[in-house]
Write a structure and sequence with these properties.
mainly alpha, two-stranded antiparallel ribbon, 7 helices
Length: 154
């Protein structure tokens, strides 16, 4: 469910705000948590398990912060909570992109114009022997007056 849909604006939002206004103060946070789970689980329900685990993790960190009278210990649990939450967010936000990018890089390194090339022993072996080789190929394609070899460039 997106924020701009009629389902969200006329049903979900109105129901959530209406029930919120009718509840006593102590139960309002629980209602908002339930409404949040419904909203985030609407598209992919299995994400509710992840959200529930994150909620429990941060709740436990909050309990330990409140129970501790020592400032160093409080800072430690705040740091653990923030790093854990941001790490989880970063993983789920960028893992797919990194997976596709690394796959693309490895496939392009192992093939050249659709033909497989041998796997290099190290990274330096896969680089052109002449650093101007790639540049000169580009010049030959773009200009009829390009030098015939890389030695003419220098």
């Amino acid at each position: 469910m997106a924020f701009s849909t009629h389902l969200f604006l006329f049903w979900f939002l109105l129901l959530t705000l209406g029930v919120y206004a009718l509840l006593p103060n102590r139960q309002r946070n629980v209602w908002l948590a339930i409404a949040s789970y419904v909203f985030y689980g609407w598209f992919k329900p299995h994400y509710c398990l992840l959200l529930f685990a994150t909620t429990l993790f941060n709740y436990e960190c909050g309990r330990r912060i409140a129970a501790s009278g020592e400032p160093r210990r409080r800072k430690f649990f705040v740091t653990v909570s923030v790093v854990g939450s941001l790490g989880l967010l970063g993983f789920f936000k960028y893992a797919g992109m990194l997976s596709v990018a690394s796959h693309t890089i490895w496939v392009s390194r192992l093939t050249l114009n659709g033909t497989p090339r041998p796997a290099p022993g190290n990274v330096l072996q896969s680089l052109p022997e002449d650093p101007c080789q790639l540049w000169s190929r580009t010049l030959k394609r773009s200009s009829p007056h390009a030098p015939r070899s890389t030695t003419e460039i220098w």
